[in-house]
């Protein structure tokens, strides 16, 4: 029997019968028309329980808002062009592209110890990535395989265009770390 047919035949649950949605879930057995309640714990309950001995990041109560960037470049640097680190003032030249994703291109640089992650123009029109990079720079993370930013990259006009990360060597890098 199809799920929708089963749903139509099933007695509808009155809203008053459900006291707290976060304390139970309904498992539906496809061979019959009954349901049973199964207790579960929400992720918020687990995080608040103190079961995790260490948290790598502190939880924030007031997340940053995303606004249109006040200053965004008209174009981004590509292979052969230069970028300048914001805090150290080091000039780096972009070499070959190593990898791409939906918002950035990662380049080798003339300094073998660093890669440059350059964002595409469309995402630079919002201030989200620059704000995120600044927040990440405030935290000192040293996890093997995680290319944590070590500086911000600007173009020749001083516009934010990306981040400077340590070059990954050896084992495969962690491609995604959500923060």
Structure explained in plain terms:
The protein has 179 residues and is of the alpha+beta class. The protein folds into two domains: 3-48, no CATH class; 82-166, Phosphorylase Kinase, domain 1 (2-Layer Sandwich). The protein has four helices and eight strands, in the order αββαββββααββ. It has helices at residues 3-9, 43-48, 121-124, 128-138, and strands at residues 25-28, 35-38, 82-85, 91-100, 104-109, 114-119, 151-154, 160-166. Strands 3-4-5-6-8-7 form a six-stranded antiparallel β-barrel. Strands 1-2 form a two-stranded antiparallel ribbon. The protein is globular. 15% of the residues are buried.
Structural class: alpha+beta
Number of E-type strands: 8
Major sheet attributes: 6 strands, antiparallel, barrel
**Rough outline:** globular
* Unreliable runs: 10-42
Helix-strand pattern: HEEHEEEEHHEE
The overall pLDDT, averaged over residues, is 73
Please give the radius of gyration in angstroms.
24 Å
CATH-assigned fold name of the largest domain: Phosphorylase Kinase, domain 1
How far apart the termini lie comes to: 43 Å
Helical amount: 10-25%
Fourth-tier CATH superfamily name of the largest domain: Phosphorylase Kinase, domain 1
The number of distinct helices, counting runs of at least 4 residues, comes to: 4
Largest sheet strand order: 3-4-5-6-8-7
Give the CATH class of the largest domain.
Alpha Beta
Strand content of the residues, in percent?
A: 25-35%
Task: Identify the CATH architecture of the largest domain.
Answer: 2-Layer Sandwich
Count of discrete domains: 2
